[in-house]
């Protein structure tokens, strides 16, 4: 029954929003290289390790750290840990893309990501994202589960 509901949600979302739902900020036919904030990394190549903790302690939702400085062209392995008591996620993107995606998440709170720039974690679990930052700029990472970004789960990546 849940699978039928999930598939129906996907079909309705695809009809209503087109390819934007499947990959926010990413036009149909584009390769991952076209993303403003970079491309999926190669896990077999060396990467700088950046640890990020997702927390909801003391009623405050946040990422630790909430600012990361990266060199253009650098590949980063984000080692993620949800130390909280509820599910959290991280989505790398432009601020505009993440705000648009947050609107979609508010309409479809059970939406799960299958994108190389996003990872959802249950409480007390770990995960990884390997990403190569190919362009300079200021980018966003957020938890787009409804209410979490608004509660403080957002951060900035500065690529120089």
UniProtKB/TrEMBL annotation:
<dbReference type="GO" id="GO:0009055">
    <property type="term" value="F:electron transfer activity"/>
</dbReference>
<dbReference type="GO" id="GO:0005507">
    <property type="term" value="F:copper ion binding"/>
</dbReference>
<dbReference type="Pfam" id="PF00127">
    <property type="entry name" value="Copper-bind"/>
</dbReference>
<dbReference type="InterPro" id="IPR008972">
    <property type="entry name" value="Cupredoxin"/>
</dbReference>
<feature type="region of interest" description="Disordered">
    <location>
        <begin position="19"/>
        <end position="46"/>
    </location>
</feature>
<feature type="signal peptide">
    <location>
        <begin position="1"/>
        <end position="22"/>
    </location>
</feature>
<keyword id="KW-0732">Signal</keyword>
<dbReference type="InterPro" id="IPR000923">
    <property type="entry name" value="BlueCu_1"/>
</dbReference>
<dbReference type="InterPro" id="IPR050845">
    <property type="entry name" value="Cu-binding_ET"/>
</dbReference>
<protein>
    <submittedName>
        <fullName>Copper resistance protein</fullName>
    </submittedName>
</protein>
<feature type="domain" description="Blue (type 1) copper">
    <location>
        <begin position="52"/>
        <end position="160"/>
    </location>
</feature>
<keyword id="KW-0479">Metal-binding</keyword>
<dbReference type="InterPro" id="IPR033138">
    <property type="entry name" value="Cu_oxidase_CS"/>
</dbReference>
<keyword id="KW-0186">Copper</keyword>
